[in-house]
Design a protein that fits this description.
This protein is mainly beta. It has helices spanning 24-30, 89-92; strands spanning 33-48, 51-66, 73-78, 99-106, 109-112, 119-121. A 5-stranded mixed β-barrel has the order 1-2-3-5-4.
Length: 138
């Protein structure tokens, strides 16, 4: 007698529903630290909720809120987006103009507050912009 069986390989995918901040000031208020700096290069890899994540070396120009004083370079984890979306906001902003990073202090070190709104180009004065750029508005 023949029998049929389902696939022995079961796959699953983790989906994360990230919080959305109305303004950059709202993201700053919920962050443990905010800095002005430049994303230099990839530091390595990590994971978040069993999803691969990338860590980046960030050159600190100044701490705008929280954080430390005098740290020339820190490592920041760029959190994964969700449901197979592998884009990395820190990769997209690497090596360019100064950016604002909204950070939380996790047990594993610094990580951006969300993968969608964790990094934003600096405002004209080098500070936190008043609105999100068109590319990341809800």
């Amino acid at each position: 007698m023949a029998a049929c069986a389902g696939s022995p390989f079961v796959t699953s995918e983790t989906c994360i529903d990230w919080v959305w901040f109305e303004t950059p000031a709202d993201a700053a208020a919920e962050s443990d630290a905010v800095l002005l700096g430049r994303i230099v290069d990839q530091a390595g890899t990590s994971n978040y909720l069993d999803i691969p994540a990338t860590t980046w070396n960030v050159e600190v120009d100044s701490w705008l809120d929280g954080g430390g004083e005098g740290d020339g370079e820190i490592v920041v984890t760029s959190l994964p987006r969700s449901c197979g979306d592998t884009r990395d906001i820190m990769s997209e902003r690497q090596g360019g103009e100064p950016v604002i990073l909204f950070l939380r202090d996790a047990s594993s070190g610094w990580e951006i507050i969300t993968p969608l709104q964790g990094v934003v180009p600096a405002g004209p004065d080098g500070g936190i912009p008043t609105v999100w750029p068109d590319a990341i508005e809800g």
